[in-house]
Amino acid sequence: MSTFKWLPWVVLVALAAPAAFAFKTPTRDEAVFTSPIPPQFQQKALDEKDGTLSWRTLAQVTTVRQRDKFVPQFSQAVLAFDNRPVRIQGFMMPLTAGDQHKTFLLSAQSPSCPFCLPGGPDSLVEVQARAPMRFGEEPVTLAGRLQLLRNDPGGMYYRLVDATPVVAR
């Protein structure tokens, strides 16, 4: 083969190489706010319903170090709901196998979304239902008494006790 047949390929590779190696490592802030997941596959937040406790409100918690462990420090907005009746909407996350569950987690994110990153303890509520509830993949609205957990060995921040499903009207 003559050199002239290879010359266009050599020129093309030479021109493309700088672009191929020009990848910029994102800064910490860029990495947090950009996602490699296409928008059509990203988790959509639950619509906030009137009369339900918002996940945004529950997210108003920070962790502080006390001696040898980290504990939650709740905002005043969250403290106002401690041991009060609330309604909250979320997705059931069973802790055991079966169709019906009396104890489970309620999540702000759908557990069936393979592309969704799980949230932290501020996006989960441990639920202790009054009666067993049937598992479903659609969001549910529950009513119960919210407990703020300041020293839970499992790392949970919230528990909803005596929970019952709210029937949509």
Explained architecture:
- This protein is of the alpha+beta class.
- It is 19% helix and 35% strand.
- The chain has helices at 3-20, 28-33, 55-58, 76-79, and strands at 61-66, 69-74, 84-94, 100-107, 124-134, 140-148, 158-165.
- A 5-stranded mixed beta barrel has the order 3-4-5-7-6. It has a two-stranded antiparallel sheet with strand order 1-2.
- The longest helix is centred in the first third of the chain and has 18 residues, at 3-20.
- The radius of gyration is 24 Å and the shape is globular.
Properties at a glance:
alpha+beta; 169 residues; single chain; 35% strand; OB fold (Dihydrolipoamide Acetyltransferase, E2P); globular
Tally of alpha and pi helices? 4
Shape verdict? globular
Stretches with pLDDT under 50, minimum 5 residues:
17-23, 28-35
Count of discrete structural domains: 2
Q: What does the largest sheet look like?
A: 5 strands, mixed, barrel
Radius of gyration: 24 Å
The helix-and-strand class reads: alpha+beta
- What are the secondary-structure elements, in order, as H or E? HHHEEHEEEEE
Number of E strands: 7
CATH topology of the largest domain: OB fold (Dihydrolipoamide Acetyltransferase, E2P)
CATH C-level label of the largest domain:
Mainly Beta
Distance between the termini: 79 Å
Enumerate the strands of the largest sheet in spatial order, edge to edge or round the barrel.
3-4-5-7-6
The helix fraction, in percent, is 10-25%
What fraction strand? 25-35%
